[in-house]
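Let us begin with a simple case.
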Amino acid sequence: MTVPAPIRAADHLIDQLVAQGSDLIFGVPGESYLPVLDALHGRDNEIRFITCRQEGGAAMAADAHGKLTGRPGICFVTRGPGATNASAGVHVAFQDSTPMILFIGQVARDMVEREAFQEIDYRRMFGQMAKWVAQIDDAARLQEYITRAYRVAMSGRPGPVVLALPEDMLYDMLTPPPAPARIAPPRYLPAPDQMAALRERIARAERPLIMAGGGGWTPQAIAALDTFARAQALPVAVSFRSQGLIDNDHPCYMGHFSTGQPPYLATALAETDLLIALGPRLGEITTAGYTALTPPVPGPDLIHIYPEPEEPGRVYAPELALVADMHSFCTALTEWAPIKPAAFAPRTAALRATYEVFNSPASVPEDPLAPYFAHLNAVVPEDAIFCNGAGNYAVWLHRFVRYHNPGSQLAPTSGSMGYGLPGAIGAALTEPGREIYAVAGDGCFMMTCQELATAAHHGLNLTIIVVDNARYGTIRAHQEREYPQRVSGTGLTNPDFGAFAAAFGAATWRVTSLSAFETALAEARAHPGLKLIEIPQDPRWLAPGKRLPD
């Protein structure tokens, strides 16, 4: 048998990523992993390094890639400041259950525990925001660590893995082991008696409700949920920022649990006698601060389906806990015969009708922004991807734009500002054939606006919509509620956003009327490359239909 020729550790590392199907790396270059950058030279046809302008943006773009592909988004950053910057995106991936692998250049092995230049113990730093954190000290174990990282990132509740790479290790030579198999996420279902118990509880229910959410959903799982809900006439809501899990035009879709939940959703949940939580953690935002469902025993009977056994019962005690991946579980549901759709259909139709009213801009007749987002919803294709960060502007987006296709909503459940533009960059590189929109408030956009340079450098086709009210709008809303007319720290001075974006080669528009927005959007959709539309907002408007007194 021929013995493979020795190979440099950095080259072997890149071979492992290629073997696992990764074709994009997001990162900011650093001297702590120079051999990896060298190993990427000449391999753009296999795997591309996407040079970003700040590590937080790089990690958020990797998160978007992981959300869209279901496989780990890859990010490389340097030690110390690079790692601390990237932690913002790692936290997003953890709370959103997104597969990701963050590689961090580390000090040389003979410098560890001396507080060398930019040295951090990453096991301690990332311990609460990653599924696994390790340091690869032995180059011969690179394949072992990397294949395990892919497996951990995609198994159970998906999430981020962090691997530290001592810079001297990357120069080591090793004899490569046989090429690894491509890792696939495991599939698993509950026992047949548990599935039968679930069916029996649905049959006994009078006012059931499915709440879908969480990570680990595949396009097949989303299609299966569509089929199951339609066949059983069961109403489906989604947890915070999970609107892409079901076509919002589906006759059983009734809205999403979010900040400022509409009264009809609160009433529907209060009247529900069987809540089927299909994938969400039932966290603070989705449960209105743990008040819509009171822990530890919620009002309705709870059936919690989750991919890891530790989560059901963590806050709310379920009547039935089922451990399954969403792909296998939803696919299995499509094999069920109808239970009693005729009994469920009237309530489902009534809830759908209420959602239709709430989703219409006519529900807030004097609101200045609702018609903008309603028009956006009316003209973009159904497979468009909307990326946003955090801020009150997102309430308009989530209320008046409907999501239709898998991956159409990329938004952090962690409430991280600045996600929209990096998320759109990750989406534009992953799905170049779809229309990509980054929607941001002025405060949110300025968190990661330097990534305009990344979009320009890589020639990406995406549209940025900035809603500018010259303040941190969400915080001002809380401030006005708790301390009326005592403004502190929430006012902002902004640049000319059009001139700023134009400096990066973007086509820009500033619109102050609906007709001007309609024209600008049409021109932006027809214009290839980077575009920015600025919408000045009356700062008195805090949310749809809610305005401060004059």
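The second case is a distinct protein. As before, the sequence precedes its structure tokens.
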Amino acid sequence: MPLPRDAATHDVVIVGGGHNALVAAAYLAGSGHRVVVLERLEHVGGAAVSEEPWPGVAARLSRYSYLVSLLPRAIIDDLGLRIDLRRRRYSSYTPSPADPSRGILIDRRDAAVTTRSFVRTTGDPAEADRFAAFGDRLLPLARRVFPTMTEPLRPRTQVRSLVDDDELWTDVVDRPLGEMLRRSLETDLARGIALTDGLIGTFATADDASLAQNRCFLYHVIGGGTGDWDVPVGGMGRVSAELARAARDAGAEVRTGAEVTAIDPDGEVTVAGPDGRSETLRGRLVLMGAGPAVLTDLLRAGGAAAENAGIAPEGAQVKVNMLLRRLPRLRDSEVSAEAAFSGTFHINETLSQLDAAHAAASAGEFPDPLPAEIYCHSLTDPSILGPQLRSEGAQTLTLFGLQVPHRLVAGRDSDAARAEALAAASASLNAVLGEPIEDCLFTAPDGSPCVEVRTTADLEDSLRMAGGDIFHGGLAWPWADDDADLSSPASRWGVATGHERILLCGSGAQRGGAVSGIGGHNAAMAAREMLG
């Protein structure tokens, strides 16, 4: 049970100031509870921030997370968030690794364009129809599972009944994803486009028996009830800024430069302020915005016998942020660079290449070629660039490399690891372009090219994200086992830890992952029940 109100300095102490923590703070403070958010850095937002990586260059990039799909409309409306999520016309462009002068362009507004590109690239007149049918088949999952994400957990059999398609359920939930992809699509290229949704930040193969790829895939195709991924206008920092405003307007205290050094299961939180002095806060409840692995360390620092942390989190990605003078030329003369880069630009991501990259990384080698996805947010949202950059035709480019597990960079010299990652990313991208990407890079005032690499080690160091795992550990199915004990508010909402007064409110919650606010919402709902 929570501490008595008169024994606590706050009703809720929230550790970490990421977007989920701010969601929880806004809901709980809005209910009249005394809430404090403690953030180690000098700004809130965690991985959902916009920053200028290059001094003197007015380009505000979504430096870590970059797209929004899983943020429910209900949270936006409940908290009065003033954000604009912009839909992209083109879903994706995928040049053929065998012949980059041809590529699949998926145009949401013109099915004929999509069909022609499939025929030209794969030689199969029916593959476009198969790909469209594959996407349509997933819609019942999106329409029926996504609304449950902000409700108490439902038992597995109940969610299966909601989906009302036993074959679809078996394909996505019970059997490795590769089986459904091979049965639904005929070409290695189309299968790879679909498989990438199962490998974002997840180290797995199409046929991995753990079904980690299936769980990641499910989260990527259900957002908003449609599976669409949108660009936040103003960058991801705009989302966090609105959440911080909502939390403060509701009455929450948000402290930055406040590093939590220890947590006691009874609700005591030790925090070091900017002046180095320690302060002890006592919360009736403690909400943990960082991951379970970080919680374990803080509990140990507080002298508690921490719960078993299980398998150490391990991210599996590398991110390269770039500012270009102009978009690079393609080898494909039938697709404009603006169309190709407006959506998700897939490079070297056939199903075979994705599985081969996993095998290479498992053997301790950097994947060659590196499977990756490219995003050009400035085409959809030019506001992230200053007026001068816009007038000059500059564009941002973000490359997200897959199948790069933390083990490839952990313990290595950081500069050497970044250099290897950049070399692999550049080689993979240049293999499908009509000119080297290096020739298009914008130059900063100090003469350096505007490119930065963020490895899993960088995430661990800068954001305290254990193992650089963007999900704070393996994703869980967004429902409860049929025999699960859901008698407590924390278990019903999927935010329980091994300690009654401590709840998860970040990506480590059962329905965490991505910029969704769901972990924060659900922790707040459980806390409301517990606090009364």
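The two ends are 11 Å apart (CA to CA). The mean pLDDT is 96.
Keep these points in mind for the review questions at the end of the chapter.
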